[in-house]
Amino acid sequence: MTVLEQLRKTIEDGHPGETEKLVREALKQHIPAGRIVEEAMTPAMRTVGENYKSNGADIIKILAAARSVRKGFELLEEQDSQFGRRNIGTVILGTESLERWKVICMM
Q1: Smallest Cα–Cα separation from 41: which of 61, 11, 71?
Q2: Rounded to 5 degrees, what are φ and ψ at 93?
């Protein structure tokens, strides 16, 4: 199992301390921060969210996974000062009716 696979599993299980160790290990192996996020952190949170939708996870498990991801992000930001400041795009939100816009704003 690769370090990114281990990291993904650790996040899904909600272990912040182990997440920090694995992020450090990935950085020692010269894995770029973007790759760590794209191949481990994002898929792990997607899996936790899907498990929640199918009633396979409760809110406590989601919060534990979120703490793990936050711990990993904190470490990545320490290591790569540009990571947290990159502009990777622009979000444009639109709708065809005022009623739908009100719903979106309320969310």
Answers
A1: 11
A2: -115, 130
Q: What is the arithmetic mean of pLDDT over 3-14?
A: 94
Q: What are the CA-CA distances from residue 7 to residues 64, 99, 101, 102 (Å)?
A: 14, 43, 38, 39
Reported as a single tens digit per residue, the pLDDT across 31-80 is 998 899 999 999 999 998 888 888 777 788 888 998 999 999 888 888 76
Q: Which residues of 63-73 are buried (b: 16+ CB within 10 A; e: fewer)?
A: ebbeebbebbb
Number of other residues whose CB lies within 10 A of the CB of residue 36:
23
pTM of the predicted model, to two decimals?
Answer: 0.71
